[in-house]
Amino acid sequence: MSEPTDNRLSFNDAVVYVKRSGKAAFAAMPVFGDDENAETAEGARVFIVLPEEDEGWTLRFIAGPFFSAAYAANDTIPADEIPDRVRELLFVPTQCEEDWLTDQLQVLLGKLTQAAGIGEQMPDYKAQPEKSAASDVVFPVSFIGRDKPH
Q1: pTM for this structure?
Q2: How many CA atoms lie within 13 A of 69 on its CB side?
Q3: Residues 6+ apart with CB under 8 A from 124
Q4: 3-class DSSP state for residue 116?
Q5: Which residues of the chain register pLDDT less than 50?
Q6: N or C: where does the chain have the smaller number of CB atoms within 10 Å of the terminal CB?
Q7: 7: closest CA among 93, 106, 74?
Q8: H/E element holding 44?
Q9: What is the pLDDT of residue 78?
């Protein structure tokens, strides 16, 4: 397993790391608004490789807007359906507790980065006011970057 000096791992190395250590690894991508001048991320897509007893590992995909209790996605992606663009990401070794996966997205990212030892790079989002979407709100598929069902 080759580890870059900045501690980031290829997808395959992240899977090996998770299987050997029983810990997690994650990659995150910011989501910007539709405005072509948007400079501030409105949300994120987070991919977490988690240890699992039966399979050895699983990939969790969580996406949504910041400062909201609503997620656009909170799914497990089967190994045979993982897109190539996800396999090209670099993952950071971390730890992850099951109850973290229901936190607001920015809080989840804060916990993952702190557990990875890079938490000082994230603002304190826990102190921010919570917003939530109405129960009938549906996020567009384009927000999470997955293909529309055929």
Answers
A1: 0.73
A2: 7
A3: 110
A4: coil
A5: 1-5, 122-126, 128, 150
A6: C
A7: 93
A8: strand 41-50
A9: 92
